[in-house]
């Protein structure tokens, strides 16, 4: 009881207006020791794996900026994350904007430390390649499942000759490295013209459940939730949210927009339906502020982070209860 | 019959292109005497009650600008407001950008004069606090009901110490002052993270009907209309439309955007379902042009004003008919 | 078999990143002889018929720019247009930005040559008046049908005195000139305030099937497709896609936005339902880049062109097969 | 004495904030009878003569909007125009956005009435072709001189085949029609690549004094003023200010920007040096709001109008004094 | 010697790229105890005194954001502020966005504590009224002088009836309250139309040295520096930099732009000429990000802060040396 | 005589408006064989060496877009480049957006072929690191001199650990590799805060002539030209123009803006003063369209390319004449 009173709390908006103060994630304190935290909010300002329009390197800063709009309790689930868990802004993972392999190593090392501290990471990218070193850090011992919101499967093989690592390849690599269990992966929102008719072969052959946008529309949100829960099952599961899974009117600030995507409200409904899964981390990626004149993409990114944060905090509370018994 | 020919008419777009001429509301004449009018279109360029991003002071000018897109007849209801009623641009209510209490007094006084002239006000804000002095002017004698589109309940109590009047508090104040009958209030589109689990206690305890966005999605538009009509009943009713009730892709130019809102088409459908209520006024608030790079928010504001105007003009015609009998 | 290997192909995005190279439509070669092609992608950079906000003259260039996002195969229908047909960028039709009648003549002449070469035109406007001279070129011998996406019927009569030719009149003129068979026309997405209660009289009296946005919502996509197919029947049919048929959040960059429109996903679903019609051409018009700060309208324009291209290429292949038998 | 108290006055900014009220030019009353005025501020929302990027049709509205920033007295010359002269917003000249020749006729007729009323016009364009019909209205009886700020000489001959009237030709036409005395014309700020080495032949051969940007830099402002006064002499003189005479950082919102232009401060200094000439009218043209994301071009346009207004009002006062003697 | 090694240092850009990490001023640590610092960088996110376009409440956050561009040593003076002085980001002063008088009290109290700790404040506004409570905190015991960059004198008396406190009045109030010695004030860059011919009477009559933009141009930078140093003399002096002193092309993001201002390079030259004065504080005000689409105004604000910081740090070092002797 | 008639010519703007047609550099033909050309215009869409804000990968496309504004003859020098030389758009050099070393190799190889064909390259970047592989291609046999416009010396050593190749290091590498003769290098416009007092040591010690912005202001344009010519001497010389050499109001669309830079007019004057040097190539780099809301940076880039093109074409003509003798 006394416990949660000591939890880090956001700056109080009834005292300090939301446009004021230094913008940390959710206006939480900036702390440096993950072992003191249940959940760490982490920026990964890196877009070196981007094959088209860059700019996701600026994502964490703008998501932090817009996260000042967030308050403290989820209005539907009534989850109060800062009561349930110790959460703070852990700053940014180190990156190298001009060296891809060096960046992968730096990011992995940083997240390994977070993971070793028993802390669940919730990250703001950066391009989607950042999820690979995060997986290397948190899934080294057992493959994890994934709820994956995206317009693209990100299971391509190679680009520009022989490059294995781009933001179009992380989940093929993760499967190959034994980090990701394809049978426990669901991809939601896939769409957009493809390079060849077998672009989706790896995803489909490896056993991932691909819910194309067309199927999403037909199923409706409730059935998508059921399907996602069925696929993820009881094992450890990660939520990876690429904002290009949304229609580009909701997220114009991204590198590879595809029209005809889901609404934020639909995405929020699906996310809220994931409560109770065994969640081990999450990220929001591909927010590219230079292509976001109204700032809405960063606001969406911050709100989706809050949605995921509530799920993670609820999980922390459940585990704690479970242990008590 | 001769009557409506004398009604003020918009500038003719087949003669003067819509980008030309001085932008009044709906391209109507700018008149100054409310007693000559059935319905007055009024700007209230004031955002002194704003606790977050300001800019709604510029709302009336941009809504006027975009209202040049409006034509003369509603394409669904076929209501022709300028045939049914005498409508004009009455200019702006006086305001004081650096003195909140003085502004409340000035606005109330201006609307009291409009009301005394037997004229129904349809206003363009300004932030949502402007609705309070309008209520003081038009609801002093009997409490009114309200159809309220918004992401926020605006029934908070105090901010920044002990400030009773902000754009987050008008409807708590209006209930306390006996201007608003909470039993005849329906709030549509409420959503977004909250400060504490009891943020909605005043609204709910006082008897307001709160249709959260989640319920809105489940009910669908037809049932929302029914519910709104049921709550409003036969008494005098006001329509207050905060553009942040819409998803921010439709209205990015606002101070406190919350993702996951309704579409403009849904809002339009609900509004069209309100025909026949005893409407005594309306407003469109929280259009903040500095955050609206494409201008769409102001276009939405102008179109929603036109939707409400058609309802009000229809009401004027019905009352006139009623009296004739 | 050897045939399609010779078909023009887009620049390979796995070799040349999509932000690189000179932006032709779909990154296809720029060729000049229509008789070598099955389908020609053509820009018509002209907005001299615009009665309100101009800028569609810049449409072709920005659509070309954004069309670099397109890949090679449709992800739903699996149509691979560049395997099925010879497609290239034929450059722009000649225009005269300061002389309306001269422009109509130049455009007609250019498209007549395309048509004479047995090549199907898919055009990027330009304002909607460009469709009239295209019709004069391709429908001189027999009236065609049309699937028409738009907020406006574009069947007005005269503007600004006695002007018969504006972007609000092309389809009245086309019917009068015997180019368009009104009984085989379906207009989808019509909405927005009107000048007078009989604005739609010509469309309705001539026999066009008008699906207002309200009916669209009620029918749903599947029934709209059925109705469109029923109206178009088996005769030669053209697809004309005015981006203002979409809600302006999807297409803010246009001259006459009307809120409350369809989503891109809905439009895409309808288009995909048109496979198998006897399609003789298509266009995407009213993309106005100066009003498109995020570039999304041009991306939408490019993607809709790709959707139509797939339908046209499928038609080319069907006809070829038909002939073989 | 009693006279000037009756002069129209701007809305008082110490009472009504400058973002409020309906935006007329300089917040002056909108009047309709030129014969009651000494100086009329007039919008000409037309860009049908534009050969490149359009949008100047929106110029008058945005210049009106930004003119709310203007106050009442010139801070250097201390000229108080509303004390010296009767000035008002006369609304817009009629135009036809789709018919060039019709527009020229309508504009001429409107200005002829202004001129007949003894009123000096100060106009906001619109593209530069609008100056031609203004000249036809006010210079029919005797050729006038001109101080012309511009990047381009606007003395070309024909475009797009045989079109004599574009925004690149007005001053060749005006000389040919005997409206403009080329010997009394000075062009200031000319620059930018040219189509051929003899592009400037007409201007130079007809006797216009062309001050290229290079000479402007070398001469400095004081000598430019001297030269302009020398060329204009004592005869009736018009000031035509194309905002592309300024460097595009000051006026990005224009159709044909040329880098390397003058600063606004330099232009203001030159204008202030023209006090005392026999000024018979003026205009500010080529403000194109769709290309002006920050709004600065319209602010510049409004301020330059105020600068010219002060010169014109001073001239009115001088003539009045002269007559009294 | 060991001393400066302990001084707070910015995040190292050769390790952490400049787009990464949480944006404090100059990437310095966020500390809370002014008594540990020589110079405190402070945000004052408040624009409640603004009479025209608001938005300066967002200034501190964007200036912090853009200050990541700053490095560690001044390239002309070679002043290395973080070697000479203990400098940090002290966070924001508390404010109340809806209560002017409460805000003045809160700001004064915060700065009084900074001053009591022997720490020199360098602030980012906020509108120009914030300078008044800063003066009350730091100049209570003896009137100070001021180098004031601005388009406006800010010595008006009252607005909107009887309001004494707006961003147009701080320096009249400061003189009246005995905080500011008008004989030791120089105002640089004054320009723009005025309300009446005696707008500048208070400034001039009280003995302030007003360098209008016209005189600035004639004098040139070197003589302006001399004059500023002469006026400031040896007494304690404050530098107040309103970004509207610059031409609006350099600082479009401000509430009351006036064209025809100085360049940033000129302002930087003047500032560099102030080295050695007895500087007791400084501020950069009126940066309004909502009106700053390119972000340049905030970059200018951050760079001007760095320029002033170098002057202040040099002063700290000089005083330390002086004391040692 | 017959010769130059066969030279490639831009699309004729008096026939095809400048907003029409596919945007190649200067509207020239897109050719592929450098050996047929005297001067090749080449895009290098790559920003993998960028340490701060990226986006220069989009530079070539937007510069091509804006280069449609260019005409055919220089208005000051009267150089007509397409009469003097065979010039065309050679397309883009191949690049790899996710592999720095691979990109350097691809770029070098492409330019080596251009150089081998006897063709002078004029390139549009891309970030400044692209100049290094260009030098490797064209200066392998003898070190060249350079006129270098920039805010930064770009002679740093290493970043982010041990990375030798970034856009901050090309000219140190070029000197080390014997490609660039530092004694024949002049750097113009250097400014901005520095990391440490010896940041400029390499440039100064190696013998480069550094004209800081401060010296630029004092010298004035004429003396800067003299100094540049003196340093470059008679040897082969390259012009490298980083747009951040300009003040960011002229070039906001760049990755590392520094306020207080030169004007475009000053830069143009300096460039024009370089006629007659032995020029062997040139480039315009660091145009980053995502940070360029008005498009002015790309327009500046295109115009500076035209300025350099005129110098190069003049050089081609001089050499041809020289050979003839």
Biggest contact? A-B, 31 and 34 residues
Number of helical elements of chain A: 11
Strand content of chain A: 15-25%
Broad shape of chain A: globular
**Spatial strand sequence of the major β-sheet of chain A:** 2-1-3-8-7-4-5-6
Runs of chain A in which pLDDT lies below 50 for 5 or more consecutive residues are none
CATH domain fold name of chain A: Arginase, Chain A
Mean pLDDT of chain A equals: 96
In CATH's first tier, which class of chain A applies?
Alpha Beta
Any idea how many domains of chain A?
A: 1
Structural class of chain A: alpha/beta
Q: What is the subunit organization of this protein?
A: homohexamer
Could you name the key traits of this structure?
homohexamer, about 325 residues, alpha/beta, Arginase, Chain A, 8-stranded parallel beta sheet, 11 helices, Guanidinopropionase (chains A, B, C, D, E, F), hydrolase (chains A, B, C, D, E, F), manganese (chains A, B, C, D, E, F)
Textual characterization of the structure:
Chains A, B, C, D, E, F: Its cofactor is Mn(2+). The structure is a homohexamer of 325-residue chains. Chain A is of the alpha/beta class. Chain A has one domain: 3-Layer(aba) Sandwich (Arginase, Chain A), CATH 3.40.800.10. Chain A is 34% helix and 17% strand. Chain A is built from eleven helices and eight strands. Chain A has an eight-stranded parallel sheet, sandwiched between helices. In chain A, helix 10 links the parallel strand 7 and strand 8. In chain A, helix 5 runs parallel beside helix 6. The model of chain A has no long low-confidence stretch (mean pLDDT 96). The interface between A and B is medium-sized, with 31 and 34 residues.
């Amino acid at each position: 009881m006394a416990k949660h009173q000591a939890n880090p709390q956001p700056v109080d908006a009834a005292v300090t207006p939301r446009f004021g103060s230094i913008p940390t994630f959710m206006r939480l304190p900036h702390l440096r020791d993950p072992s003191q935290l249940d959940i760490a909010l982490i920026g990964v300002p890196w877009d070196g794996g981007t094959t088209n329009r860059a700019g996701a390197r600026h994502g964490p800063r703008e998501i932090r900026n817009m996260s000042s709009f967030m308050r403290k309790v989820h209005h539907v689930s009534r989850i109060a994350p800062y009561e349930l868990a110790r959460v703070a802004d852990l700053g940014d993972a180190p990156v190298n904007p001009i060296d891809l392999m060096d960046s992968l190593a730096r990011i992995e090392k940083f997240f390994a430390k977070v993971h070793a501290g028993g802390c669940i990471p919730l990250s703001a990218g950066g391009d989607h390649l950042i999820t690979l070193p995060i997986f290397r850090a948190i899934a080294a011992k057992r493959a994890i499942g994934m709820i994956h919101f995206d317009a693209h499967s990100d299971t391509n093989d190679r680009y520009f000759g022989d490059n294995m690592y781009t933001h179009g390849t992380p989940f093929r690599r993760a499967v190959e490295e034994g980090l990701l269990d394809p049978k426990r992966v669901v991809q939601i929102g896939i769409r957009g013209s493809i390079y060849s008719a077998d672009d989706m072969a790896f995803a489909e052959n490896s056993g991932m459940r691909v819910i194309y946008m067309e199927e999403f529309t037909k199923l409706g949100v409730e059935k998508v939730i059921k399907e996602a829960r069925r696929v993820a099952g009881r094992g450890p599961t990660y939520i990876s949210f690429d904002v290009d899974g949304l229609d580009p009117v909701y997220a114009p600030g991204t590198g590879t927009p595809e029209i005809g995507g889901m609404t934020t409200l639909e995405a929020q409904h699906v996310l809220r339906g994931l409560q109770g899964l065994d969640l081990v981390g999450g990220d929001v990626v591909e927010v590219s502020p230079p292509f976001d004149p109204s700032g809405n993409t960063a606001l969406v990114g911050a709100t989706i982070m809050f949605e995921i944060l509530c799920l993670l905090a609820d999980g922390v509370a459940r585990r704690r209860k479970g242990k008590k018994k």
